[in-house]
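Handout, tutorial session.
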Amino acid sequence: MKKYIFALVICVIPLLLFVGCNTTEEDTNIQLAEVTRSVFYTPQYVALEKGFFEEEGLDVELQTTWGGDKTMTALLSDHADIALVGAETSIYVYAQNPKDYAINFAQLTQTDGTFLVAKDEHPSFEWDDVLDQSFLGQREGGMPQMVGEYVLKQHDIDPHGDLDLSQNIDFANIPGAFLSGDYEFVQLFEPTASTLEEEGTGHIVASFGEESGEVPYTVYMAQQSYLDEHPERITQFTRAIYKAQKWVEEADSTEIAQVISPYFEDTEIDMLAASIDRYKEQHSFAPTPIFNEDGWDRLKDIMEEAGELPEDIPFEELVNNEFADEIVSEEGE
């Protein structure tokens, strides 16, 4: 995936569906691109809805870009100031030798956010149940698929030899393809996984987040030039995210669900709360924006295991913890 998607990114093909942001204006507007819409990103929606960005004097405009390739293209072509996307994308971009690459400056999630969903009930699920079954995976080279393969291998399952694995469905179309296609297993984020279970069209049988352990799964990144030109905005943005992380850690899941419900209008509050509970139970929401070096090494191990690590890039090359360290230090953990 790294060879194809980011060849497009480096060419910086303009995206017609985005309205370009003017980063030369001395204002407080930030164009934020999220890789998908998911309960997995709950602290971000809390920061927006609770006014934490406004408290920092920022006007944050959120756009959902549906996929790592589109998100990074938006960032590198100046159609977004900050991107919420998998940390692996910064490695792919750097390996292509761009002039102004992406720097990770704040972490939002610290585990995989997907769940293994089966069409049929598996009351006593064992990982061997997936052997020789049709499995609808996530896109090749993305964190969900790489973590999925990593977990399967931990259970002595060869994803490409022991399964009938499909990876040819666009991210946004995976749930629909699972329901309409001849697939027994699929890897899904919340609230989609719980929604299918509620409808009786799917059954959550395992958590990839629990199986894989901590990893810097979804992070905020910006181009190096943006960090150099707007350090105060990055500081304000990071502070707002940290406020949201602390609030989410302390708040009840139902209260959180009510706050983020405008971003999931088709999902009932109870369903949102159940999804939030799943993520809180497995500690998916990072407690601070600080990006851990051990997590970076684990990320590279997962990428290497999947055959997707283009080169061994040092932590300090693509991670800048200065903003997060300052915020956590002044606010207190």
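The second record follows below. Compare its token runs with those of the first.
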Amino acid sequence: MTVNSKRKRSWAEPFKIKMVEPIKMTTAEERVEAMETARYNTFLLKSAEVYIDLLTDSGTSAMSDYQWAGLMLGDEAYAGSENFFRLESAVEKFYGYPYTIPTHQGRGAENILSKILIKPGDVVPGNMYFTTTRIHQELAGGAFEDVIIEEAHKPDNLHPFKGNIDLDKLADLVDRHGAERIPYISVEACVNMAGGQPFSLANLKEVRAFCDKHGILLILDATRAMENAWFIKEREPGYDDKSCAEILKEICDLTDGCTMSGKKDLLVNIGGFLCFRDIEYYRRACELVVVYEGLHTYGGLAGRDMEAMARGIEEAVEDEHLKARVGQVSYLGQKLKHSGIPIVEPLGGHAVYLDARKFLPHLKQDEFPAQALAAALYIDSGVRSMERGIVSAGRDKKTGSHRYPKLELVRLTIPRRVYTQAHMDVVAESVESCYENREGIKGLRMTYEPDNLRFFQAHFEPSAPFVLEGVGLDRSKRYSASRK
């Protein structure tokens, strides 16, 4: 018998479903009312009002039976929990860092890192900003400077590693400020604000050499480092025969420490950690974790949470898991691309990003097109997404003016092991419907603005009524999404 090895086969998720959570489709009228109550900010919607929730992949993954079983083994001792030592061992095995401090989530690690390393007047270069990272740097007296390659600011550029750092920008920064004013270089895996774009190991090695030359620390945002490892395996020459676990270890070996939000890669609902190679930085961080998080052996987490995270590391680093996780993102992205929807390419690991500038060319950036598009998508189908553009960028601290990022995006963020491909089909159909009726999506005005991280809680109102065809399940009706 001859087997045709060239025949293309479908892939399936490396798990089966053991428990389900019911979700409910609301009516168009209910969604309009919900969006008005939420002031056109998808963060202010109630979970019960959402049909398919693509707001974030942070803390929204489905844990395995192995992780749930671990919750029953929680050692809730205030000091020296057995689960801490399980987590510490897993981090050292797979990430390679000898010193680990648990935190309640990633921003807890960012806060402590900023307080021990940054002095007023310092400059922190990084491969594009992330919202919470930058605010902690600023609150510590530092200033963020973007040193990502220019290709990262172009949604349709197909560079395979748009998360790379531009060494010329880095060198210019040192020339202007001096190495002594740069406490560390921040390198983020699968850069969120760029569309989930990875860096290459070749680039990271160059950055490591630069840091060694100038005596600067290199700190990894490891939140999505496992997904970055998958892209290195798929795209970088010489790594196709290596496992993601091996590549992850190689990434971390090039850095001096990391911040980590375990709520992404590690398949847990809460938790993170801060790691160092140097014992002195570790000791300083231990002092502050007691102030802001909890003792250095629990860091604001229950023992059961640390156990679930330790087990999540073991599961999430497996190649088959990462193949399915990134594969579902690719499935949705390819459907949208084939329908002519403007998206960020190449597709990233945790989300599909809609290019709101091209999607809604009739809106100016200060009319908040990505915010408006996220609102329209919810009104159309109950799908919740989030803005990643001018609202997220905030205001310049010196001038008070809006920052105007080159990227104006809507993020369709896919939780791990939660939704089926059929859910992705529903999402794609809703995006296509909004695109067909894009002229009916109007600009927004901001009516309330917090001083920091405004995208979480800002209020908006439409400058004119939205008019969307096919809202909800009734494809024949037209509905004004803003009541006069």
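Points raised in discussion: Residues 28-57+320-480 form a domain with the Aspartate Aminotransferase, domain 1 fold (CATH 3.90.1150.10).
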